[in-house]
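Page header: ASSEMBLY MODEL / two components / 653 residues total.
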Amino acid sequence: MDFLGGMIYGFSVSLEPSNLFACFMGVFIGTLIGVLPGIGPVATMSILLPVSFKMPATSAIIMMAGIFYGAMYGGSTTSILVNIPGEAASVVTCLDGYQMARKGRAGPALGISAFGSFIAGTLGVLGIMILAPPLAAFAIQFGPPEIFGILILSFTMVTYLAGRSKLKAVAMAIVGLILGTVGLDPIVVTPRFTYGSVTLMDGLGLAPLVMGLFGVSEVFFNIEQRVKQEIFKTDIKGLFPNKQDWKDSAMPITRGSVLGFFLGILPGMGAILPTFFSYGLEKRLSKHPEKFGTGVIEGVAAPEAANNAATAGCMVPLLTLGIPPNVVMAVLIGAFLTHGVQPGPLLVKEHPEIFWGVITSMYTGNFMLLLLNLPLIGLWVKLLKVPYGILFPLILLFCLIGVYSVANNSWDIVVMLAFAVLGYLMKKFGYEPAPLILAFVLGRMAEESVRQSLVLSRGDLLVFFKHPISCIAMIIALVLIFSPLVMPPLKKVVQRTRRREG
Amino acid sequence: MKRYQIGSAAFLLLFGAVICWEARQLDMGRIVKPGPGFFPFWLGFALVIVSMALIIQFRRAKAEGPAQGLWKELCWEKILYTLGALLLYAFFLESLGYILATFLLLFFLLRVIDAQRWWVVIFGSVVTSFITFALFKVWLQVQLPVGLWGM
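Prediction written out in full:
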């Protein structure tokens, strides 16, 4: 199917009433949880995983994807109005967005972030349409060594880009891989680490793990501190940015979209890091960098565009390689797998209705979000006034319903609570849960590919360097791993020579 | 802080060692044809190495500020109560049925963990239990356990 044919076919799928409704539900829930602090797209998507069993695969994935990019819209609202990022990807938006609100320009700030997101989302969808089919065609030739090479590169990127401690991130990735081995061995079907439990034979569920680590532990973390929510009282009038605003933000939105999309493709980037890069880029390119942080519209437009484009970008490796580049995509892969659909190079051939339907739904979804967010902004603001004391029992209840209904098994609740305690402690000690989940999801694939590679090459450990694609991936990974050892001395040398010259 | 950090790494070290030990009980296979124990064993081994590196890193790090507990000035006992309530919910959900169990849980969370006004507590827990039941069980056809009177 060519590009245009695919697009038309895609719209014929995504504009079906049931899919349109799924898309609406997705972006609506996404905006809602984006506005509400304390629950993010990862936990929400796993709560809805069992609900999506009942839906057709295409609708389920359309809804799940809608939650993700919908949350990006909702998150910016709280950043601008309350200086609390509803979503981690809108942290940067606080810097200038909140300052704009304090200057009485909350309206244009909200407006530009919605329009910027829309433009970026649209460009991002175009990007997927252009990039994904040829990439999928290329990836069809990948064998186990190539897959293992790319997985190693992904793990390396994820830990390399991890916040505070890279070593801790590595440890978490290994723990995730270990947790992924619980259950039946993928090749010879021997039970591992099951200790006679029938429940564990199927392996640990993604839903209890994710809801424990991201949903319930977040609640634990929040209820122990007394947070006072303060809402900045401002009249939101004139959501439409004026001519000057548009002139100032046209280029930042374009640059933010392109940057966000391509960064989003990379493993470990997610939607959060691109916002920082894009903000930094605008500050550097700006004629008045000193004004950043005082409420300039570029500081809102660029990162908001970047996080939306990134949500589109990270669909690319999922749809073409079957490798989720971040945690949200890892949960989305769960939705694919529960419907017996394996995302990867064959997806576009075997399930064109999902491939093109989901991509085009992102376009319709972005349009719905624009309609949802601009006129209804007052409603979302009101929602912010719900105190956490009322919110957290609801979040817990949704996690309970979600995790129980996966298999109608109360033990899953206990598993979730165990991971909630673990997640809470991890947060206290500064270990990030994201590498753990990603490794958990990719663990099976990693093990299969390494074992198959070894069998195919008759035990040659260098097999990963003998295939060109895996070799390139491995070399980049090695460079990244050893760069912290090499870079600081290099920097010192450079500084010394500079000093000598100066 | 430093002591806690080393403790967390020591826990990971122990976990890695246990995994290695347990993986040894499985068939390791040979390098030509790795068995079920192969992957877990090397993962456990890698975790041991990484956590040793973490311990060294923590020991070298300068103590950050005064030694302060991680739970000082926080109401961490709320977490214990909440956790207890959720565990009880897990154990009694199927015998009490969804609506009753949920009502009790919400009542406890709204009143005890975060003292809301009484009408909020009662109204909130009753209405939420019924609405979520209707939403998930009736509309979305999610399997929720029923107790007395089919609720």
